Amino acid sequence: KVFENRIRLAIMSLLMVQDHLDFNALKSTLALTDGNLASHIHKLEGMAYVMVEKKFVGRKPKTSYLATEKGKKAFRDHLDALESIIKGGKSK
Length: 92
Fold this sequence. Notes:
It contains four helices and three strands, in the order H-E-H-H-E-E-H. With about 90 residues, it is an alpha+beta fold.
């Protein structure tokens, strides 16, 4: 259900191919506002699909995100389910 939202699907897609991405990279890539991205990240974090990593670079805070093993498995399962639906639809 969590991946039925296109923004959360896009966030996880990006995190599946990148080790980690920072907030601004996700925001600009997906063309989202701070609040919109934060709410979707919060949902994914609440499901334990995304882990937040906060650190300082010099004196500036930097927040990065990475997909957890649980999140990667859930995402792959979601893609497998979609593939099954597509293949099932083509055989009819």
